[in-house]
Amino acid sequence: MDHFQYKNGILHGEGVSLAEIAAQVGTPFYAYSSATLTRHFHAVDAALQGMDHLVCFAMKAASNQAIIKTLAGLGAGMDVVSGGEYRRAIAAGVAPERIVFSGVGKTRDEMAFALRGGLRQFNVESEAELEALNEVAVSLGTVAPITMRVNPDVDAKTHAKIATGKAENKFGIPISRASEVYARAASLPGLEAVGVDVHIGSQLTEMAPFELAYRKLASVTQQLRAEGHDIRRLDLGGGLGIAYQADSGPLPSLQDYGAMVQRELGHLDCEIEVEPGRLIAGNAGVLVSSVIYVKSGEDREFLILDAAMNDLIRPAMYEAHHDVVPVQAASADQPTATYDIVGPVCESGDTFAKGRALPRQSAGDLVAFRSAGAYGAVMASEYNTRQLVPEIMVHGDQFAVIRARPTFDEMINRDMIPSWL
């Protein structure tokens, strides 16, 4: 469920007309619903009720400080994957002890910055990182709390580019080597192993891969405890999928997920951490765009929008589906048409959808891409010297610009011409 609904024939974000935002801000723009973010966070939190747990929002999905601050105010921790995301979390007022630092390529500078500022734990991904983190912690006279990310070799049955738990993937250490690596961690003076981490992928639509991974996690936890390690925290990552299509089939419920976590891991008496990103932010955001032209091709019609692949790259990168709907609801007698929905970038990959049925559109009409709140704005670029898409947050009957569209002068003046030119 989200809070983007038609009112008086116009698509609204909560109590705000998206057409009114377009008139004031221009298009394209992202709009987020604070009520939807709130609802989704509480739903995840409630699913783990009865277990000691912390819900850390995966900031890589949506890292605007207004989103971070909204969720932190509800009690969320943050899962960051770069020094930049760590800085954003701190700037938004997140308590350091509620920040988990993940990612396969943490630099020594990032490690040092987070150790100086404080954090909940590093989720360590390799033996090389283990050694580097120890050296940094010792040089600072401190001890770094860590979990090791184990790779359980489980097929998440999701898109190949967002699967992370198979042996062929770059993430984590083989679960078969956990004993050896934890023994090494225990011998290093700058590290304290507090738990185990696992994350098998994103946009999972079945429960079975989670069950298999968590069963392996329970087994390795018991093994590590028997070897003398004080494993008291289990980081389960994220990955539960969302509905990208109005007519998509049933997805695993959060209640079923929580019951499964309790069943597979509850007996270990560990604190549970989960790191949802898409699950909280995905359906909390839309991308609104204007029709530039309707073009007739040889055997199809093209709906050419002012949004492009640089604004929303998921369809080009992942063949991802987003429902596209008119901002002004169709009348009962309005004819429909079938369009290839494309952007203005000079690449054939700048295609959002093919053969999509919509009420007949004209230049100047507004359309909205649903379920665009995760991996939308954060992956946007200025390709073709296009202005970075702005972000808006709605709250009841109010809205605010939470990231402005840059001017062309601001963009171009970032370039520096060398003296010899």
Descriptive notes:
The chain is an alpha/beta fold and 421 residues long. It is 28% helix and 25% strand. The longest helix has 19 residues, at 208-226. The model is unreliable at 161-166 (pLDDT under 50).
Task: Compute the CA-based radius of gyration.
Answer: 23 Å
Q: Which stretches are poorly predicted, pLDDT < 50 over at least 5 residues? A: 161-166
Quaternary state of the chains: single chain
Q: How much of the residues is beta strand, in percent?
A: 25-35%
SS class: alpha/beta
What distance separates the N and C termini?
56 Å
Helix percentage range: 25-40%
Chain-averaged pLDDT:
94
- Number of distinct beta strands: 21
Helix count?
Answer: 12
What summary fits the major beta sheet?
Answer: 9 strands, mixed
**What general form does the structure show?**
globular
Q: Which descriptors apply to this entry?
A:
single chain, 421 residues, alpha/beta, 9-stranded mixed sheet, 8-stranded parallel barrel, 12 helices, 21 strands
